[in-house]
Amino acid sequence: MPSPAISSHQPGTPAGPSQRFVDAALDLFLEHGYNGTSLAMIGDRLGVSKAAVTYHFRSKEELLAAVVGPAFTDLAQLLDEVEAVRRESARRREALHAYIDYLIRQRQVAAWLSRDVAAMTHPVVVEPAMALSGRIDALLVADRDEPLGRIWGAAITQALTGPILSEIPVSDDELRLQLEGIGETLLRGYQTARRRAAEPTD
């Protein structure tokens, strides 16, 4: 199955004049990795000079931030909306389905980052990713600072991200259907574990 076109541009927002540099950077990061890509290579891909690239982005680090930034903005906005849901059970299910939709929208970027250690461990990626992952866990489990919550939070997020990072050649609709089934099953398991943990012991 051919891969859909990859772009870091956020859907629903106008693409600025610098977007073509961001898209070219992502293409080259996918082909050569972050460390294996230079600003000169990005210029060559677009048929412009390195100076034309640095006019828009002073460094490769700025380009990396521009590539991953829309994905982090997308997730932050999603979490803002879900956190406004008052009832805990409804908020948890809303978080699950919204997070699955997000992972599917960003499946190419996520899969690339999982393979590219230099990009994945760069502070431009690590710092926002850590902050957002804590918010995701807090929405999916009620006691994320306790061992039970940490176990189930890790189990749920890894079960959802694993198929994304594996780049299994299935349609978005099929992937969503299966991830929703996995997520719902794990949420029920988490609720059962919470009830058992709350039962008095002899």
From TrEMBL:
DNA bind region: 38-57
SUPFAM superfamilies recorded: Homeodomain-like
Keywords: DNA-binding, Transcription, Transcription regulation
Any one Pfam family match given in the protein's UniProt record, by short name: TetR_N
Stored InterPro entries: DNA-bd_HTH_TetR-type_CS, Homeodomain-like_sf, HTH-type_TetR-like_transc_reg, HTH_TetR
Gene Ontology terms, MF aspect: DNA-binding transcription factor activity; transcription cis-regulatory region binding
Taxonomic superkingdom: Bacteria
Stored Gene3D superfamilies: Tetracycline Repressor, domain 2
Residue intervals of the HTH tetR-type domain: 15-75
Protein name from the UniProt record: AcrR family transcriptional regulator
Annotated source species: Nocardioides marinisabuli
